[in-house]
Amino acid sequence: MRIILICLFLVCVCCFCGYVFGFKNTNIFFLKNKKITEKITENTVIDTPFFKRIACENIKNYYTKEVLALFANYKKTATNNPKTPLKIVCYGNSITNGFQIGTGQPVKNHYPIVLQQLLEKDGFEIDVTKQGYNGWRTDHALKNIQINVLDKKPQIVYLEFGINDAYSGFSLQLFEKNMLLLTKTLQNYQIIPIILTPTPITSKYKIQVEMYCEVLQKISTQHNISLINLQKYITQKAIQTQTHTQKLLPDNVHFADEFYAWIAEGIYEGIKK
Fold first, then answer.
1. What is the pTM of this model?
2. 213-223 average pLDDT score
């Protein structure tokens, strides 16, 4: 009897090992109690490969009448065209700089240069300057605003900050305070600020960044400042084009080279209307 029990025990052990290791060796897995199996290849990504929703969907783009009128005057065909370019500074972090994964250097077609090309093609007299710096937060932007922005005497400044603030643990209150100071400083020099929401990320700081977008909407609404929702535009375009998140954001934050142009397209879309 004892020998029979030992044999049964050994059979059970063998079956269990075959169950555990057999599936591994045949590259088959089960998905959450569903009766679905899938053969895994080396290139299969088990995590969700695409955005499931449109981030910050309820935050609408908003261009003030002042901004739209200013752009209209700088059309080459405009009656009141001042015959000099509209000066724009794009002030931001590594996203504005066009950070290239692997080198840390700016990509060839970063968003400011693509924006310049789109506006010129549409008949605008325009001069776009890039002031983007890897790793910068809103406090860095405030500290260096004189030399990087004010001394250049632009008429419009696009502000793109937030991702590094989130990584540094800046509270919503501190982020709001710094962004307000940035916009007010520009306005004190008769420069028009335009706020860009942070672009989408897929790291653990994603929710904090999306909460910053709500802060930016509050600033835009309460102080009548133009706002472009890049979170919505980028995620919406990624969903529409079925662009894999790892292809779009290989390091979970920065774009692959060809996708920085999407930022310029999102900005331009509001102007051309």
1. 0.81
2. 96
